[in-house]
Amino acid sequence: MGGEPQRLSSGIGLDVFDAAPVAVLVSRGPEHRIAYRNDVYRETFGDRPLGQPLRDAFPDLAQTGYFSIFDRVLATGHTERLSTAPVDVTYPGSVADVTRYFNFSASRTALGADDHGVLAVVVEVTEQVEAAEQIRVLAEQRRRALLRYRSLVNAGTQVVWVAGPTGEMTETSPGWERTTGQTWEEFRGDGWLDAVHPDDREEVSRNWNRALTEVPADFTSTYRLRVADGGYRHFAIYAAPVRDGDTVVEWVGTCADTEQEWQVRRREDVLARAAEATAGTARLEDMLDALSHVIVPEVADACSVYFLPQTLDRPAGAALTAERVVALTRPGLPGLPRHREEHLRPGGPLARAIEQGRPLHTAFPPGEAPAALGPAGGRGLAGPSAAGTVQQRRPASRGRGRHHRRTARRLHLR
């Protein structure tokens, strides 16, 4: 600094701050002339000349209020501190003014008997401030993403769910609750499996556990879910793992109701097989028998076909006689004689279906078909209908040989 080294009133030379890891500046007198600045200060703010007033050394700070801090500290002797204070000056190596951030402390110091100045210690915290801002921005982005996700979950037609890395449900799903009627307490963990159709449950569990072990890019499946009204509908499942590096932290998935599409595909498949089964068949009875083998057990538990040899123009309440020419039941159900004359109960549901010329649908518990639905004195689960076919219909299944277990079955007479 030229001349005798500057010293504090204690006699300690200012060069004691030369090796300090933070920027240090000492100003002298009311003009705050630069009496000392260490290497870190010069590297940070440039080599501002010794003896120059701070207002001249830093003209770009004239409107910031920093100089008034030096005035107050020198006048009152009270130390002042600033945290993450922005400083816009021309820094060494920069082509334009940039903003950097500093923690700043200013305290009065005696440089001699009647000589006072201000000791300023400055620590740059620009990286910390920028990192905190990045965290704030990311946190805000995450918050907005969560709000969008929740809005999607609450308003979407699909069911959206979140599972932990081991497959247990970890977050509520309003869509799932609306669709299945399960509460969060029933749904959480592995409780969701209770809403899967009993015939599908083992396969679904096995496939899901395999996906958790192998962690494919995505997981897809179609199975039946019990909906809030107690019935079952087909849902397409899509799930994907959420990774943090190489670690799966959770799974996010959707369930979309595909029952209508499934029924359309099912109908097209059954019609195609019916056309194939009856191709080249000339006799009516052979054609009807071939159709019954398409219907049972794929669509129905039983199918009977009846001929009505007599005219339907008969007095009200008169007996109706029909001849059964086809009778087929699925394995496990009692069989019916193929050729048999049946006398239908006047006023019964089967006779009404014939008289009214429209399908008859009746629901009943499994294995408890009402006696009125069968022919008089007959046995079994099926009876004649207006068009000659009777089907004890089972709800449509996913594939051949796979059936629903429901609380009610329907007898479809047409």
Briefly summarize what is shown.
This protein has 414 residues and is α+β, with helices and mostly antiparallel strands. It is built from ten helices and 15 strands. The radius of gyration is 44 Å and the shape is rod-shaped.
State the main characteristics.
single chain, 414 residues, alpha+beta, Beta-Lactamase, six-stranded antiparallel sheet, 15 strands, rod-shaped, disordered C terminus
Succession of helices and strands: EEHHHEEEHEHHHEEEHHEEEHEEE
What is the mean predicted local confidence, pLDDT?
A: 80
Radius of gyration: 44 Å
Report the total helices: 10
Oligomer: single chain
| Largest sheet properties | 6 strands, antiparallel
- The total of beta strands comes to 15
Widest beta sheet: strand line-up = 12-11-10-14-15-13
Helix content: 25-40%
Provide the structure class: alpha+beta
Cα-to-Cα separation, first versus last residue: 111 Å
The portion of residues forming beta strands comes to: 25-35%
Anisotropy-based shape: rod-shaped
Description:
The protein is an alpha+beta fold and 414 residues long. The protein folds into 3 domains: 111 residues, PAS domain (Beta-Lactamase, 2-Layer Sandwich), CATH 3.30.450.20; 102 residues, Beta-Lactamase (2-Layer Sandwich), CATH 3.30.450.20; 131 residues, no CATH class. It has 10 helices and 15 strands. The strands form 3 sheets. A 6-stranded antiparallel sheet has the order 12-11-10-14-15-13. Strands 2-1-5-4-3 form a 5-stranded antiparallel sheet. A 4-stranded antiparallel sheet has the order 6-9-8-7, sandwiched between helices. It is rod-shaped, with a radius of gyration of 44 Å. The protein starts with 22 loop residues before the first strand and ends with a strand. The C terminus is likely disordered.
